[in-house]
Amino acid sequence: MAPQNGILTPSFNTPVCRSLFGPVDREQLRVEFQESMRKTLKEATCKWSFDFVNESPLQGGDFQWEGVPGNKVPALYRPCMVRAGRQGAQCVKERGSKRKQTNITDFYPSKRRRVQSVRKLDQ
Q: What DSSP assignment string belongs to the chain?
C-alpha cells in the first residue's frame, strides 16, 4: 500500500508477500521435530513402562502388561476384522468401512426453491 495524502491505497506494482515469518529452514525444522518426538517418546515410556519402539512392556513399572488375543479386543482397536475359520482366526480387512465426510445438508431436508416468474404474453 502506498500512502497518498495520508490515505493508504493499494499499490498494484508490488507482489503480494505470503511469507509472514521468513523462509523455512527445513533441516532445523526436522531436527526440532525429531527432538520433540524423542522427548515425548521418553516421557511416554517412563509414564506407561512400555517400550513403544519395540512394542514390548518394561519390567519394574507401575503397570502389569498382559497379552490379549485378537478376537477379545473390541473392533475399534483392530486394524481389521478377526473372523474365526477352519484354519483359526483370520484377519479380514473390511471394505467400505471408511466414512464419507458429512455435509451441512445431511442434517436438514433439502427444499426445492420455487421462483415465480412473470410470463411474457405473445402479442
A: -EEETTEEE--SSSPP---SS----HHHHHHHHHHHHHHHHHHHHHHHTEETTTTEEPTTSS-------GGGS-GGG-SSEEEEETTEEEEEPPSS-SPPPP-GGGGS---------PPPPP-
